[in-house]
Amino acid sequence: MKFSSILSFLFISLFFSTVQAQDKAATEFSIDYEKFTLENGLEVILHVDKSEPIVAVATMMHVGSNREKPGKTGFAHFFEHMSFNDSENVPVGANRKMIPEWGGSRNGGTWSDGTVYYEVVPKDAFEKILWIDSDRFGYMINTVTQAALDREKQVVKNEKRQRVDNAPYGYTDEIIRKNLYPEGHPYSWTVIGSLPDLQAATLEDVTEFYNKYYGAANASLVIAGDIDIDKTKELVKKWFGEIPRGPKVDALNPMPVTLNETKSLYFKDNFAKLPELRMVYPTVEGYNKDEYALDVLGQLLSGSRKSPLYKSVVEEGKLAPNVSSYNSSSELAGEFVIRARANEGVDLDKVKKAIEKGLQDFETNGFTDTELQRIKAELETQLYYGVATVLNKAFQLVQDNEFGGDPGYISKRTKLYQQINRADVMRVYNQYIKGKNFVMTSVVPKDSPNLAVSGAKEASVWEEKVTAMDASEEVAQGEEAEYEKTPSKYDRSEPAFGEAPLFVMPEVWQTKLGNEMKVLGIENNELPLVTFTITFPGGHRLDPENKAGLAMLTADLMNEGTKTKTAAELEEAIGLLGSSISIRGGLEEINVSGNCLSRNFEETIKLVQEMLLEPRWDEKEYDRLKQELITSLKGNEANPRAIASLNFNKLIYGEGNSYAVSSEGTLETADNISLADAKEFYKNISPNGATFKVVGNIKEQRVTDALSSLSEKWKGEKVTIPSEDISENNPARPAGGSEGNLYFIDVPNSKQSVIYIGLPALSANNDAYTKLDFANEILGGGSSGRLFQTLRIEKGYTYGAYSYIPSRDETAPFTITSSVRANATLPSLKIIENMVKDYGPGFTKEDVELTQNKVIKQNTRAYESLNAKLGLLTQIDKYGKSEDFINKEQDLLMKMNVEDFKNIINKYIKEGEMTYVVVGDKATQFEEVKKLGKNVIELDIHGNPVK
């Protein structure tokens, strides 16, 4: 989990409320809480939210990679992983396995400045989560063994391979940090660290780190949700009060940096297909008043079609599909980033000149009051979405308490943003950007170093060599640690469940407009927000065979202005309302999605109507979007996971089936699409058969009144969607050519192998779909599934392994997927093969009971957000489910016995009929996978046989 990304979103999202002086409710926005401190120094914040029967717990440790030393990098993140292993009073392996089985979710995240651990559970498991969370915090160090250390090293190394070594542009952060910060600066290395440093970690290192930084006085704890304040205080004192205070951890003072010269570096990327330029300027630490003006500056420079960088790089230069600029401030220092991933073959010298031109335009012409007003309005809406779940509230409270010294800092932040004026923005631009030195990276395809900025010096990074597995990489559970339990005045055994909360299906209303458009809604008044979607069936399935991608391109083009508004004017009109509207094409639908403040719903719908009925069909925007599509398709050729997914679908569905081709299409089909094709496809977007779904702070009458004009002005015929059934009952089923085969695709020097395995199963319209979904829980349903538990927890071969059945109108494949360490490819395939073969025969009564408990408990928290409730409406609309379908599915689950599960597994999870796809390093793995005993066929990245 990239916790810093969530915090950045919340941090920026809170900005707008400060600037809405005309809206008293917004400017005075706050989150209610109660704070107290235990005798051991642990600061505790409680927030009551009884909207759903769930509780979120977030523990923030004030230690990140900035506390590490050269030669021991990546240790804070590594310790986060170690913490999720065993502890004194919790059964071995339970931390990762039990919480999902209670219906909860859990994870953690480490960044430069801190580490967070968090869980969300149904309220009946509240005390259980305090038990397990406090045991992880205060009672884990005695249980750490050499076997656990060795196993977790492999997991973290796999995470680095997946996110850095095997990813396009994965090394860019390392290059920037090495050159922006002086040697020894706490930000001069990456959070995940280096593989040699991770491999060198010892048990003594783990103990030293824990004893130094994991004291109660170096942490904050937030509990948010359906709680009783007085009872929660008692429970917190019981479970967390005996955790040692720990030694005093001295605060780190801000360490902003300056550059004596601009540094330009280039890197030849093994995976990148497109050149990328980044320019990074040093700025200020978090909670510095200049941070807020820098946030606004980033939005003004690139956040709209009227912004100077967008005009110079995208619109005029036609050099890249987009450009971004943003400030990112951490505890000790900050960075202002300008980033553009260019079109294929574009010289980055041109991108640099275009950015310089945009900055010069900003210096000369500045910005309008309307642009500032737009940013403030958008941020107001984002504020509410940023705290729309109990977990996000917990994140905000715990972050601001630990790093801002005040859990209610949101109120101060709003006032600081409210005070920002034109002079503040220009001052920070002149102080931190204009004429200042920066670090510039040119990351280019490995065979195109000529695309780098002229004069750039080649950057060096440490890269792992793909080798055969050695004995040190084989790990196992190992023996349990021997230790004496830490004395306690409390019984620290597992507490009982509380009273079981029951999922209550929200009340759904339905109606139909005069133009045959269905309308479904759920009223939810917790926040002044409305979320809506208009769904038009068809999407990519209506693409002509040689013009795949047309539905998506048509939808994208409908965002680019109306008859009376240019793309920039439309964007501004939407932004001034604080709303968002987007039209997107997908596999089976085209969707119009929107978010707005409740008070602005009617005005937002007027703009939706304009976009739907009066698209601009701007040829200039069409040309830009087509180039953006081509750039995206070219980028997919660099992504091993995308290569695996695309070819898996092609093998499962067969030639000529729309599901066999990405909804983006291919480079060849994109070349066939014209503006006239988009105008013709637009005829498929009809209200007859479409559905408007809405959730939020709005009543049915307001919705239908707002849609009355659209209903009167827009009529159409129902669109016929061709059937593409590939179920086993269809004689035209194409998968017979790939069943039982293993297809290998070479991506040279891959540090991991991407695995996709599966076979055609069934449609979400099939009565057996829900049963198969239930039957998959034990095998691959999240971190408690056998795939994850074996391949990651037991063997350390991967960062994650899962199985699932996509929800589709037509037959979807039962799918198993993972990315495994390159030299563990064959062992991983053997484990999956045997696990699937044994799954049905070995399914037990205990597995049935576990599945029943897990699924029913999960439902209590699965539909908390507005978007999740919108998903309920999609199930009712798309698949014809009843308004109480969750209750009916729960009843179905409770009536299933062992034989019911076995029958479903034996029918739809048949290993012998599965297609295997492996994308990895041919030089080391091709001969290895042949040892699995399957027929091995080599393909190129486009799915063509290699001769």
From TrEMBL:
DNA-binding among keywords: no
Keywords, alphabetical: Hydrolase, Metalloprotease, Protease, Signal, Zinc
GO MF entries: metal ion binding; metallopeptidase activity
Domain Peptidase M16 N-terminal stretches: 44-168, 523-645
UniProt domain Peptidase M16 C-terminal: residue ranges: 201-379, 672-854
Signal peptide positions on this chain: 1-21
Origin superkingdom: Bacteria
GO biological process, one term: proteolysis
Presence of keyword Signal: yes
SUPFAM superfamilies, sorted: LuxS/MPP-like metallohydrolase (SSF63411)
Entry's transmembrane regions: none
Pfam families the UniProt entry points to: Peptidase_M16, Peptidase_M16_C
Family: Belongs to the peptidase M16 family.
Name under which the protein is recorded: Insulinase family protein
